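Worked Example 4.2. Consider the chain below.
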Amino acid sequence: MIGLALATLRAAWTSVLGAFVALALGVGMISAIALVLAGTLSAPQREPQRFAAAPVVVRGPVELTVPGDAASNGGDDEEDGDGPQSVRRADPAPLSAELIARVAAVSPVVEDRTFYAQLADGPADQVGHPWATAAFTPYQLAAGRPPAADGEVAVPEGAGTVGQRVRVLTADGPREYTVSGLTRPVAFESAVFFTDAEARQLSPAVDALVATGAPDAVESAVGPEAEVLTGAERWTAEPAAAEDRQRLLNTRTLLGVSGGIAAFVAIFVVASTFAFVVAQRRGEFALLRTVGATPAQVRRMVLAEAGAVGLTGSLVGCLLGALAGPALADRLIADGIAPEWFSAAPTPAPLALSVVVGLGVALTAAWTASRRAGRVAPVEALRQATVDDRPMTRGRWIWGLALLGCAVGGMVFVARVQPLIATVPVIYLWILILTVTAVALLAPAIVPPFTRLVTLPLAWLPGATGLLARENTLAAVRRTAGTAAPVLLTVGLAVSLLGALDTIDEARTSERERQLATDLVLLPDGTPGISPVLADRIAAATGVEAAAPVPLTVYGFDSGSLRDYDAVAVDPAALARTVRLDVVDGSFGELSDRTVVLTDDWEIPVGDSVDLWLPDGRRSTLRVVALVATGIGTPDAYLAANHAVGGLADEVLVPTEGGDPAQLRSRITTIAAEFGARLADRSGYVGAGGGGTPQGSTAGIAVMLVVTALYSAIAIVNTMIMAAAGRVREFAVLRLTGATPRQVLRVVAAESLLVVGVGLVLAAAATAVNLAGLFAALSGLVGATPVRVPWLLAGVLLGASTLLVLLGALVTVRNTLRGPAVQLVAARE
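Applying the procedure from the previous section yields the following structure tokens:
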């Protein structure tokens, strides 16, 4: 049967052209993503920049390691860990004084510090360093001299003049300095240099040591407490390395999700296309059965054809992916997701894997179709060649209902047990996909009642156009469902995902609006954050105690596993006057140096103790004094303000009780300007500072949806061309019965609009289920929240799909109607 399959492909290659195109484009999409993903896994080690001239760099550990018995969580009876556990820190641990002394005993050392220091009109990512480390960096003086007194700084060239007084924003507030020198610009950062003593005062923690002694001696002195870096490894000690690592991790996560989506879309479309191809060739298979072919032989022939199409389509797809991969990498860089230096060159392994995946997709997609082709008897197959009397098979019912049950069950689980999962698009996305897939499988059961309902008025109209469109659609349910599948995929997936993002953002905004108890909010103005000292300055000038919550990362155990938690350090009294916290137990006012407030999902009762590891690695056993309700933007833990050492606040909240609000606004506006902050009202704060989907995630999801939409658009055209090309004899018979070419085109146009309508109804059903599940989950977190549907996007996608369906069908039919109808009928006999 393999020889017969190859001969069939040579003689009737147009019958599988649609499957070939769908597969080649699907593999091209997968291979492009695989190439970029491989690039993130094999990214080269960058050469050190800031520490280019440093012989040896000593850095604190990048992982927090705690003993396994610490998992008991402060004396609780939960299960203990079997051994030490580790988690990656948000920032490397500072070096201890004892370790610095040991290294200094065997080698000359220079203490390095990197901290927030921004000129009043400087870039938001500007940092500060001690001048002593400049000797190991590419920095050079362009004018003046190094800072010699604590009141002097060296600033980048163009940021001032020698002798000028400048204001530098720091975590301890703004300070005035005299410019002693100007440094030539470097590519990797913008820095302000201080004397060693001043840098030590601004940032007491030592981030790294530059050692000039023998590496072996330094490593022996350091021991297991820190890392000794030489050669290219010195790059990992630079601040830019952490940012590059995070961006590569974000790129990898995005591409992992995108790859899964691409594989799903490819399988979805290719399977539909193969099933459609087999359905169109049932007459051919019936003839094979009539001349003695067994069901197994028919299946082998279909699988052989699928294997040949799969191999050639996958090879062509790899060529497309090799061209699209670098372009995708450039798009990720332009959107700020991947690092600027990232590249994705074609490599053999991802391309070979894509070929295997493509071939597997083709064979898998053809397997079910081949079983259906070989299962019918010869006479029965001939009788079913034009009418679908059983469009829903038992397997389709089972899989469709099973996936729908999994999707609904997943939504119920998220809504009742883990509602926060709904706020993580990369996880909740898979539930949305399950719904779309289930609806697509159940589509043949939805098509007949929908078509009868919508087309009922057409049967009453004069003329045969409406009646023919209605009956043709009802007679070919599987064809209608197959051609509507790409419309469902495009509209359903895009509207579900972007509607979910908009709804999550709306819920986050509603939560912030509900929690905010003041109309005076200070937000960063061209700075990465606000010094918490601003709250003290406002209190001293106005007598009003403002809240300056400083975000930080702490570490603790969750069900015996060490993980990181988002926390804030804040004055509890000031926060209580500016934020309406939903305290479910205990008293927030009891927050102190030895206590902590947690969210209720910790499942630790008030009065118990919890072990937390602070950013500097110190273990602290704190008593739980209150539990607050878990929300979308609610931190996992609240600590006392003195735990925020060297941190910046995202906002400063000023109470408005008592006094003259206008006078208070005027006074705090003047003070805030010195700190690089601006005054915002409630609406400005909720809109600008209330959080939202990260820009990188939004851009990444947009890239993913654009790729999916383009692939689905091509699939729409491809499927419509296949459907129209397979109905040449039917159209010719219409011509022989008296229909004009224009009337035939009107029938096809009406059928095409019905197909779009079916796809829209299926997409609306899937989207409604998805957004209803999301609404239930978010309601459990923040109360009833409006569901946002991207109507404009839905309209654009629907219009584009309608246009593609009409063009694909009408252009093909117009070409097939050329020539006398009798010749067309004879050609198909």
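The chain has 24 helices and 23 strands. The CA atoms of residues 328 and 576 lie 48 Å apart. Compare this with Example 4.1 before moving on.
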